[in-house]
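Design a sequence for this backbone.
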């Protein structure tokens, strides 16, 4: 029963994102225009880092808005203080200005700049991207050998970006799954790679089961 429920949740979140994108013409998007994020309770980042990432996204969007106004469509996604920039800007100079502005934001560790120098994408394209994101997330949920909540998925012009703190096996497996989703043209991995030992240390262990002494009495 778990997987159908999770698939339904992913589909619902994707639908809400599409509706929000069609209802407003906001060129700058916090967390990516086609992102289904991770759940706080089972995120591999600390709670403090998650809050920092949210603050980074908001401050970065404000700075980009001051630089370019509505001339650009820039998605800002921060994971563990690494910022991914996707979307479209008018010129290469604008792309560099955005990158430098985001690098100057407090707590930013690094920036991956994958902005396209072109006209802003259409609402139709953004809706397709959101749909792809939902399908990739659902496929990760279906994968029994992965923890779907460890991944953040961003889609821009049919290119899927995968973020998260994952092991080499998880990185390879998730990319294979994303490539198999209909409509995906390319998969870009923006991971922080950790070892299996690190993953074991950060994974909560189940509490030991203690037996009631009274239950053992004849």
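Sequence:
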């Amino acid at each position: 029963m778990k997987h159908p429920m999770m698939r339904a949740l992913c589909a619902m979140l994707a639908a809400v994102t599409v509706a929000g994108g069609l209802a407003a013409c906001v060129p700058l998007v916090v967390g990516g225009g086609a992102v289904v994020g991770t759940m706080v309770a089972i995120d591999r980042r600390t709670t403090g880092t998650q809050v920092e990432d949210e603050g980074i996204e908001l401050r970065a969007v404000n700075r980009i808005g001051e630089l370019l106004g509505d001339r650009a469509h820039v998605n800002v996604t921060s994971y563990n203080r690494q910022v991914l920039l996707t979307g479209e800007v008018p010129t290469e100079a604008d792309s560099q200005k955005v990158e430098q502005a985001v690098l100057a934001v407090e707590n930013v560790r690094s920036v991956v700049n994958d902005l396209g120098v072109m006209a802003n994408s259409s609402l139709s394209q953004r809706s397709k991207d959101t749909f792809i994101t939902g399908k990739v997330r659902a496929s990760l949920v279906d994968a029994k050998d992965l923890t779907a909540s460890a991944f953040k998925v961003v889609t821009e012009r049919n290119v899927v970006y995968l973020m998260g703190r994952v092991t080499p096996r998880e990185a390879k497996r998730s990319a294979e799954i994303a490539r198999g989703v209909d409509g995906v043209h390319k998969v870009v991995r923006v991971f922080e790679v950790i070892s299996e030992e690190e993953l074991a240390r950060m994974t909560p262990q189940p509490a030991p089961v203690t037996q009631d002494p009274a239950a053992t009495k004849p």
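Helices lie at 2-23, 47-68, 92-103, 123-142, 168-179, 196-202, 213-216.
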